[in-house]
């Protein structure tokens, strides 16, 4: 287990979002997104997921409640968690994640004030 926070391509915001993920041949599984950015996320899973696994994520952001579906690849593996890099998000999906990030960041700053 290594810390990849310094290698991230975008900032991440802590969160707790329900997630369904699919690994080819294994069907749908449930998990949680525990941090999220425009290039990737940290997921908690009940099942171990090997490094390099390609998966498809299905989740909703609270601001829009529009379903997001994206392919990704596991780049980091921990105990019951995996870090994934999104294969492709369109401009609107990235914008929705940025707006979610901004809202959650603002809440955290206000809580510290």
If you had to describe this structure to a student in words, what would you say it looks like?
This protein is an alpha+beta fold. It has a single domain, classed as Beta Barrel (Thrombin, subunit H), CATH 2.40.10.220. The protein has one helix and six strands; from the N terminus they run E-E-E-E-E-E-H. A hairpin with a 6-residue loop joins strand 4 and strand 5 (67-78). The model has no long low-confidence stretch (mean pLDDT 88).
Looking at this protein, list some descriptive labels:
about 110 residues; six-stranded antiparallel barrel
Give a quick summary of the entry.
The protein has 113 residues and is of the alpha+beta class. The protein is built from 1 helix and 6 strands. The protein has a single domain (5-112), classed as predicted glycosyltransferase like domains (Thrombin, subunit H), CATH 2.40.10.220.
């Amino acid at each position: 287990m290594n810390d990849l926070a310094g290698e991230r391509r975008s900032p991440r915001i802590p969160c707790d979002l329900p997630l369904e993920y699919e690994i080819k041949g294994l069907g749908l599984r449930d998990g949680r997104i525990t941090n999220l950015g425009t290039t990737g996320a940290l997921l908690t899973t009940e099942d171990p997921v090997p490094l390099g696994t390609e998966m498809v994520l299905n989740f909703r952001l609270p601001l829009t409640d529009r379903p997001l579906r994206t392919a990704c690849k596991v780049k980091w593996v921990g105990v019951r968690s995996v870090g994934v890099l999104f294969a492709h998000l369109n401009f609107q999906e990235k914008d929705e994640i940025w707006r979610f990030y901004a809202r959650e960041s603002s809440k955290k700053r206000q809580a510290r004030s």
